[in-house]
Amino acid sequence: MNNALNAFSLAGRVALVSGASSGIGRAVAQALAAAGAQVLVVARRAEALQQTVALIEQQGGQAAALVADLSDFDGLAELVARAGEPFGAPDILVNAAGLNLRQRVDEISPQSWDQTLDINLKVPFFLARAMVPAMKAKGWGRVINIASLQSQRAFANSLPYGASKGGVAQMTRAMAEAWSAEGIGCNAIAPGFFPTELTAPVFEDSDRSQQLADQTAIGRNGQLSDLDGPLIFLCSRASDYVTGQVLFVDGGFTAK
Q: What per-residue confidence (pLDDT) applies to 2?
């Protein structure tokens, strides 16, 4: 039993979490640190990142902040080099940065389309590809992408977001095909409705929020702590034979 439990430990691992200044990204960083990983949090907002670091350190974890614009693709090599400075090269990557502009179909411009697809789909691929060589050198790694209910379902005023998240599901499978033979597990978590900055408009509407809760099999919307167990599983040795999968953590929303 002890060996089975040890398989979930992240002691000795280094994780990089993008979009860790708030919401799911911050919750992910806290969970990984609580499981024993040293965590590098990355986003553009310096003050919010420092708040994430402070929360982790208050809980006895280890974390460092790296302020960066992930959409600056020319700077990815430098970003990855800097990422290794606090704790060594990361062997876990969680792509949690995301964008949903919630535009009506007739409001979508080529610019807003590209902005959404860049953050939600392009950044995760190129960041992962830049980090994979260090994982290959260790013979072990994890890439966790954040998919969505919209990887399978359509919602109003979210066409570019839904397109990007459908792409994330397929990108995850393609990453697994490319890198799993070298010890790098590639999976995605698809959250249901959780209270974050992105979903604030939903939770501010009590009727809409209750309607979505009623759509789940469990009967409630998500709490960020609901993500901890699935996340730790996919980031640890416990998932060594699991790759190319999209795990829906949605209270059974997609089961109905």
A: 58
